[in-house]
Amino acid sequence: MRDILQYKLFRKQAVILILAGFIFFAPLSTSALTTEIMPSETLFFTNTPKSITESGATFYVDKRADIVFYLSEISTLTFDYESKGNFLLTYSSIDDIKPQYLMNPFTQKVKVLKGSGRLTLDLRKTIDWSEVSSPIITLEGTGAFKISNISAKKVESYSEYISEKDRSFFWIPEFPRLTTIIFLTPTYWSISKNLYFNEVLGKLFIVLILFLLAAKFISKRGDLGRYAIFLSLFFVFIHVAHFTVRFLPYVNLRLYLSNEEKIEKNYYNPELGIVASTLREQIEQEGKVAIATDVGDPYAREMLCFYAAPAKCAIYIPHVSELEGIPPGRKRLNIAEIDTMVFYNSPYQLPVGFKKIYSLNKNVYIAAKR
Question: Does 124 score more than 90 pLDDT?
Fold first, then answer.
């Protein structure tokens, strides 16, 4: 009876200690006051046309635009937006005007659809955030994007900056991206000390197991093995619980989604998801499709061909009669056989004999043979 009571007490103490550690590392909101910021010419650095008025700043995006906010010592950036397009908004932090490589797993991504809303960008979750860095957002899509009612929260001290960044990276959410099928975003226990969460859990588990072995050897008790079983299960539970929390924003609560809905609602790039789901609705299974994308974007044309299946698919190049299939090496298609064309940010013009049957914007549309 005494052993059972000791075992139950040990379980309660272990749970309390580990959960207390989790609470300590949970991200806390900064205590700094919110600062209102007026849009001005000196606030932004961008590579796209813009207009600034008292009501806000409007950026006219054609395929892609980078916007740097000349602000420093801030932890979050909040603004109202009015969008005339469907954008993938990527944000990060930089300490000069050169945009960060956007495939970095610690750049944060938000889907912005046509309409209005309010965004809060948590810069603490970006890898290059520091007390001197500036926010940068990249918009991938086409249309006007207006920003107004800008506000920011400032970090008041270096120690607060370190504390905020460590806690934020501990709970950093996963975002579906091109590389998700290969690897997930690494989770840090403390990014300032370069300590990974899994490493800390593993080392703590080994220390506790060694402690149990030493206690068993000293006390000559043979019943301490059950504590090792409990520890193993509890550490697995902690890891799974943390993993689940990071993926909760992407849980689908609907019982059924059609393939087209899955593509449109869940694809990380909204324009590509919308045109891919629309293509599936427009073509027949026996159809023949030609895909025209930017020369430097092979992924988009391969993705569109993948979702067009089982229809035959080829890469469109002007003035070429025999179009190469996707993947390369498949049977070529003659341009005369093509009955549907998809243009996604392509520099090419729509060929004679085709008419638009669906248009998302001037750069993204579907055409059919007349």
Answer: no
DSSP state at residue 348 = S
Would you say residue 150 has pLDDT above 70? yes
Beta pairing, strands 115-122 & 195-196: unpaired
- 322 belongs to a structural domain: yes
Task: Quote the number of domains for the chain.
Answer: 3
Structural tokens at position 216:
């068993």
Residue among 303, 333, 330 nearest 320 (CA):
333
Rounded Cα–Cα distance for residues 200 and 238 (Å): 12
The pLDDT assigned to 30 comes to 44
- Can you tell me the distance from the alpha carbon of 50 to that of 58, in angstroms, rounded to the nearest whole number? 5
Q: How confident is the model at residue 106 (pLDDT cuts 50, 70, 90)?
A: low
Q: Say yes or no: 86 and 38 in one domain.
A: yes
Q: Rounded distance, CA 256 to CA 50, Å?
A: 42
Integer Cα distance of 30 and 122 in angstroms: 11
pLDDT of residue 48: 95
Give the list of residues 6+ apart from residue 292 with CB closer than 8 angstroms, or none: 301, 315, 316, 341, 342, 343, 344, 346, 348
Do 78 and 152 touch, CB atoms closer than 8 A?
yes
Task: Find the domain containing 12 and state its range.
Answer: 2-26+190-248
Spatial separation of the C-alpha atoms in residues 365 and 230, rounded to whole Å: 58
Q: Give per-residue pLDDT as tens, 175-191.
A: 666 667 777 777 888 87
